[in-house]
Amino acid sequence: MTIKKTTKGCALLGLMLASVASAQDVYRFMGSGNWEDSNWQNQTQGLQPVDPPGPDDIARMNWGNNIVTLSTATEVYQLMTGVDESGTLVVADGGHLTTAHVWSSVGNNSTTGAPVVGTLNVEAGGRVDFGQHLWVGFKSNTTGYVNIYGGYVSVGQMLGLGWGGDNGGVGYVTVYDGGVLDLFQLHGDGVSSMKNGSVLDIQETGQVLLPGNYTNVVNDYIANGSITAWGGIGNVIIDVVADPLDGDFDGDDDADGNDFLVWQLAESPTPLSTEDLVAWQNDFGASSANEITILTAGFSVTAASVPEPSTWILILATAGVLYGFRPRKASQGTGVFFVLARCLLV
Fold this sequence. Notes:
Elements: H1 2-21, E1 25-29, E2 33-34, E3 40-42, E4 48-49, E5 57-61, E6 66-70, E7 73-76, E8 78-83, E9 87-91, E10 96-99, E11 104-109, E12 116-123, E13 127-130, E14 134-136, E15 142-149, E16 152-155, E17 159-161, E18 170-175, E19 180-182, E20 199-202, E21 207-211, H2 215-223, E22 227-229, E23 235-242, H3 257-264, H4 274-283, E24 291-298, H5 309-324, H6 336-345
Parallel strand pairs: 1-5, 2-6, 5-8, 6-9, 7-10, 8-11, 9-12, 10-13, 11-14, 12-15, 13-16, 14-17, 15-18, 16-19, 18-20, 19-21, 20-22
Antiparallel strand pairs: 1-3, 3-4, 21-24, 23-24
């Protein structure tokens, strides 16, 4: 009996030591500059100068509204921008940031009550893969901005804008021309993923991807003003399409032995390549009955923005009356019809 207690005690002590040993250090970028610069300090160990963070470290951008630019591939345990102080991360062309299976935040918190802003800009050729949740505008007095300027962002689990509820902040995600936001899911109630006036906006050729058919869920967020297009003046286009299989070489909507035969006969997209073989292995036994929801931005002129015929008659009649009372020596370009034309063109 004593031996069992000792064993349990040792096991508990071992777990405690393991948890301490596995704790992640917080790396803070001091000032602005490139990610690879020697501006990192280990906040956990009293701001000791260190190399850039790695897979076991937490990377923070929160030093006097600093701007840090990443142009290479790197992996960190967790990303946090806007922690008590504002900060921005720019993932430029060639930059690729990957986080572990743990939540990250853009606009995290403010313990002093002063406004804090966290920003993530992903430029064309840049990529960010979040291993788990992404909170944008996490807690009170914070605002988070994720701007996808032609880059690619994937979220491994939940996307939450203004996630802290009544005590949360506000989050804005904008997918610009050529940008892609690849999501794992949205809460199905049309509210919980985007709170406190937070908005996901799509512009130009930007795309938002969701696995499965999210038509009804997305329509609820649109009705609440949480998912918009062109800053709210456009309309969100919802397309649900079949999710194709990379290993379906014969085009019959599944990956089976016939597709392997196609690969053996050097008739796959890249004949006899390892890439095609791996694609077939990964998809083997699956069918392309799965769907994917694609959100894009459309632009429509509403009827309210075009005057009714009776309104045009009234406008022209009024213009005619005003024209009869114009000054005799009116300067060129100041006549009422000229002003009216300029107003209509604007």
